[in-house]
């Protein structure tokens, strides 16, 4: 073999290694970054603590009853709307529409259910402070279920008496307002027992992080180069973890991010009204219908309902499964993830109050990489399969 040919063959053998060495590595993480990523993994989610406001929250019999009630369309004024009408299991317990549709059309987007057992306040404006109190709101809303407490108590008496009494004792006198309300409250507590069991399943991102933290080395092929680059932006330059942090990728707080108003709905002031609402709520943690004592209601104790920063502030949603939840924001203002990222990148003035955003100044490539990472957060729902469909007993009772 001539020396020239030998050199040529050697160059061809070494070329791939040289190219790899020249290409910037996107998968190297410092110890501090690995620790930050570990805190975002769903595997680090703490075990649910008991809900002091709901003594049947972890009772399997209550979850079974709540499962039936969740899918029962008779809990509506027209007999056609159930909780599952808007919170559809095959859509991640939301409905894919800009504004929720029950017996009428609401002014806001349906929020997903998974992981809400960890949230101290519910709804986009936080006007409820427990899953069971949240479940009661739509039942009486004229635009959602549109029914009455008396109607719902009658459904319990006619179709669920045995299961109800097994949990809550004898059915009270339904000619008395307090008796009707007691049954109504227990409907909410049963539905909450069911919803507590709806959680997020691990995504590719979680498997990547769990492998990384276990071995100290990024697992090959689990995330693409663009997804890894987007993850770096997520915890770095894009500053997403300021609000989307922890295993559920939400701080469960409320922020004004300058989201434009939906012109088709009335003025919406967000958390500033929700804070007042939860303090005055008939079913809040300190109410006589709660199973908690006053010392267990610290979230209400320190809530200030009149802060300027609450104007047009909305709940930070979990980013888990976000790619399947278009359209986005509290009234479906953005049709696609790219629209959301463009908004955060530009940080326009808020229509009311003061936006907390600052322009991110991300390039088109960085925005694309960030979106790629967000799509890696899809893992589906973690719940027993039978809880993700209507129970036979409920479907057979449709009018």
Word description of this protein:
With 399 residues, this protein is mostly helical. It folds into two domains: 60-200 and 382-395, Cytochrome Bc1 Complex, Chain D, domain 2 (Orthogonal Bundle); 225-381, Cytochrome c-like domain (Cytochrome Bc1 Complex, Chain D, domain 2, Orthogonal Bundle), CATH 1.10.760. 39% of the residues lie in helices and 2% in strands. The strands form two sheets. Strands 1-4 form a two-stranded antiparallel sheet. A two-stranded antiparallel ribbon has the order 2-3. Mean pLDDT is 93; it is low at 6-25.
Q: Given the C-alpha coordinates, what overall shape results?
A: globular
Q: Major β-sheet, in short? A: 2 strands, antiparallel
CATH class of the largest domain, named: Mainly Alpha
Distance between the termini: 88 Å
Q: What fraction, in percent, of the residue positions are helical?
A: 25-40%
Radius of gyration: 25 Å
Briefly summarize what is shown.
With 399 residues, the protein is mainly α. It has a two-stranded antiparallel sheet.
Summary keywords:
2 domains, Cytochrome Bc1 Complex, Chain D, domain 2, 399 residues, globular, 2% strand, mainly alpha, two-stranded antiparallel sheet
Topology (elements, then pairings):
Layout: H1 3-22, H2 31-38, H3 60-70, H4 83-86, H5 131-140, H6 149-159, H7 161-168, H8 177-195, E1 199-200, H9 204-215, H10 225-235, E2 254-255, H11 271-280, H12 298-301, E3 314-315, H13 337-346, H14 364-375, E4 381-382, H15 392-395
Antiparallel strand pairs: 1-4, 2-3
Helix pairs in contact: 2-9, 3-8, 5-8, 6-8, 10-14, 13-14
